[in-house]
Amino acid sequence: EFLRRNPDNVAGLQRMGTLYLAQGDAGRAEAQFESALKSDPANLQTIASLVNLYISQKRQDRAIERLNRMISANPDQPKLYEMLGQVYLSRNDQSRAEEQYRKAASLDPENKEQRTVLAQFYASTGQQARSIEVLEGILKDDPKNPRVRLQLAEMFLVAKQLDRALNEADEILKTDSKNPDALMMRGRVLLAQNKAKEAIAALQGAV
After folding, report:
1. 126-171 pLDDT, tens per residue?
2. How far apart, in Å, are the Cα atoms of 100 and each of 84, 128, 165?
3. pLDDT tens, 7-31?
4. Got the DSSP string for 122-184?
5. CA–CA gap between residue 110 and residue 14 (Å, rounded)
6. How many CB atoms lie within 10 A of CB 68?
7. Is residue 13 within 8 Å of 33, Cβ to Cβ?
8. Is the distance from CB of 169 to CB of 179 less than 8 angstroms?
9. Do the beta carbons of residue 138 and residue 148 sit within 8 Å?
10. What is the DSSP letter of 192?
11. Model pTM score
12. CA-to-CA distance for 81 and 61, rounded, in angstroms?
């Protein structure tokens, strides 16, 4: 009823598209997302929904075509490059995915979110050293960022640099002694170091 009275309401069209998608009706979902984009061509939430739909249907070429057109119209929007990277990664084209993620991060070097996404890309593709390099760069600009420290600790743990992983967890706990994520990380690292008693104490503090 609301959409009949307000056919150009972007939020309503987005919600209906999401509802149709949850019901398995991809065709109607796509139609709702397309209608939303006609009303607001730069709406990032709707663009992301449509891109994810294309990926789920293995229509990556269509997603790339749409995103490239959007980038031509708005070349300074890092989220569009991030989405394009996601599309390339979904078809295992890591080289082109990296190019897009790096472009997104370079558009606004102060944007920690995009640099974090780049670090996550490296982590997901087994490039721990590059992920660590990006995360350490973020921490130079924002040394008190606990989320980035946790990601860095995770990378050190995967790379079996256990002392460095423990140090990152402890840095968080210096200012937030009950941080459950940092305590969990500390426990995991201590377990990897075969320090069961200390690990249990940390893990119990996390719950």
Report:
1. 999 999 999 999 999 999 899 999 999 999 999 999 999 999 999 9
2. 6, 19, 29
3. 558 888 999 999 999 999 999 999 9
4. HHHTT-HHHHHHHHHHHHHH-TT-HHHHHHHHHHHHHTT-HHHHHHHHHHHHHH-TT-HHHHH
5. 30
6. 11
7. yes
8. no
9. yes
10. H
11. 0.85
12. 15
Q: Please, which residues have CB within 8 angstroms of residue 36's CB and are 6 or more apart in sequence? A: 10, 13, 14, 17, 43, 46
Six-digit token string for 31: 């139609």
Q: Which residues of 20-57 are buried (b: 16+ CB within 10 A; e: fewer)?
A: bbeeeeeeebbebbebbbeebeebeebbbbbbbbbbee
Q: Cβ-count burial of 197 within 10 angstroms (0-12 exposed, 13-18 middle, 19+ buried)?
A: exposed
Residue with tokens 């924002």: 142
